[in-house]
Specification:
It is a single chain. By secondary structure, the protein is α+β, with helices and mostly antiparallel strands. The chain has two domains: 41 residues; 53 residues, IHF-like DNA-binding proteins (HU Protein, Chain A), CATH 4.10.520. It is built from three helices and five strands, in the order H-H-E-E-E-E-E-H. The strands form two sheets. A three-stranded antiparallel beta sheet has the order 1-2-5. Helix 1 crosses helix 2.
């Protein structure tokens, strides 16, 4: 599902809200999540999951085209851990 599909789905469910207002709301929520992660904070959405940062140490890697060894600097990656309710819902559908 894309962000625009989410806006359409919510607009169908909540007819009293305009698509522009829903899009602003979604962008605000996503913006706050990005801002919190940018500050190094953890974001937990109960029942859905939690976003956190993990530090990846500097390492040596290979360029897949040339095979040349390159140095990759230390960086952070975003880690998502699913919540119990989401995990149970996904596994119940199998």
């Amino acid at each position: 599902m894309t962000k625009s599909e989410l806006v359409l789905k919510l607009a169908q469910r909540y007819k009293h809200l305009s698509s522009k207002d829903l899009e602003k709301l979604i962008n605000t929520v996503f913006g706050e999540i990005v801002a919190a992660l940018g500050e190094g904070r953890r974001v937990e959405l109960r029942g859905f999951g939690a976003f956190s940062l993990r530090k990846r140490e500097a390492r040596k890697a290979r360029n897949p085209k040339t095979g040349a060894e390159v140095q990759v600097g230390e960086r952070y990656s975003i880690y998502f851990r699913t919540g119990k309710e989401l995990r149970e819902r996904i596994n119940a559908s199998e």
